[in-house]
Design goal:
Length: 299
């Protein structure tokens, strides 16, 4: 079948890419603010590209396996390009492999241009990321998806930025990653809470299924409230500038997300975009956090 560029863009689920793009940008802004942005700009761009490509590959491989397992059907509210026959599973597998190869190529470019003393750490992170991309769907089916996302999108990405851009592992950068990682986990949890019934029929387990609808709603609130409280704690501790209080401008969107999740979990409504609204919250929160650090650099 011939596909348009729009088909490939939709299959990549570009609306979800800020979940990996911002965890690359925020630590880089922190390193810039603290005077530790020690790599050339092309190294950051290569890292940014590699992260996005790995994320895209993860989306594609996960969607393929969800379709083959019967998780995604024409009756579910999830991705439709496979159930509707726009792509075949083989085409999506090939698409995912190409993205992994391109991400690896960008990683190799980073590796060969990096200082000798950092190459071993960069290689280990790259290998672990490739393994994580290919195994995410297995962890998701065993209720380990939240932990997987927290580790790879939060801690692992922050560590990669720290080593590639800063030239060393900055533990403060890891601490900063906890400011936005909860909302990334919440994106997945919103998706899983919406799809509890179809996931159960497909014979897989997610954390939302184990918790049940009411506890899933509470867990979602805890994730997002912790994110704001933790960020406030880092501001008070002096790790983040006072300007970072700008993240509280996103509170109206937080309220909107909580209300929508209440309708999904408590009201049992079939709402397709609860995860996308959570992704918007994560994006805006991270933009405000990044901007606050850049501005603080010049004050």
């Amino acid at each position: 079948m011939r596909h348009s560029a729009k088909d490939f863009i939709n299959a990549a689920r570009i609306w979800s890419l800020p979940a990996s793009a911002m965890p690359t940008i925020v630590p880089a802004c922190y390193l810039y603010m603290t005077g530790n942005f020690n790599a050339p700009l092309y190294a950051f761009l290569l890292l940014f590209l590699s992260v996005l490509l790995f994320h895209t590959a993860g989306n594609l491989l996960s969607d393929r396996n969800d379709y083959l397992r019967g998780v995604d059907t024409q009756e579910t509210l999830s991705v439709k390009y496979l159930p509707d026959g726009i792509f075949t599973p083989k085409e999506i597998l090939a698409y995912g492999i190409i993205c992994i190869a391109a991400a690896a190529a960008a990683g190799i470019a980073i590796l060969v241009t990096a200082p000798q003393e950092n190459r071993a750490a960069i290689l280990i992170i790259g290998i672990l990321t490739a393994i994580g991309t290919c195994t995410y769907h297995y962890n998701k089916y065993k209720a380990l998806g939240d932990l997987h996302i927290f580790f790879f999108f939060g801690i692992m990405t922050a560590a990669a930025v720290s080593i590639v851009i800063g030239g060393f592992l900055s533990w403060n950068t890891i601490l900063i990653s906890l400011c936005y990682s909860p909302s990334i986990v919440a994106i997945l949890h919103a998706n899983n809470s919406r799809d509890m019934n179809s996931d159960k029929e497909a014979g897989i387990k997610t954390l939302g299924m184990l918790l049940g609808k009411r506890k899933s709603f509470i867990y979602y609130i805890v994730l997002l409230v912790f994110q704001f409280a933790y960020t406030a704690a880092l501001i008070i501790a002096g790790l983040l500038p006072l300007l970072s209080a700008a993240v509280f401008l996103s509170l109206p969107l937080l309220v909107k997300c909580i209300r929508k999740m209440k309708r999904v979990c408590i009201g049992n409504e079939k709402i397709a975009d609860a995860d996308q609204d959570t992704a918007k919250l994560q994006l805006i929160f991270c933009i405000l956090l990044s901007a606050s650090m850049i501005i603080a650099k010049f004050l």
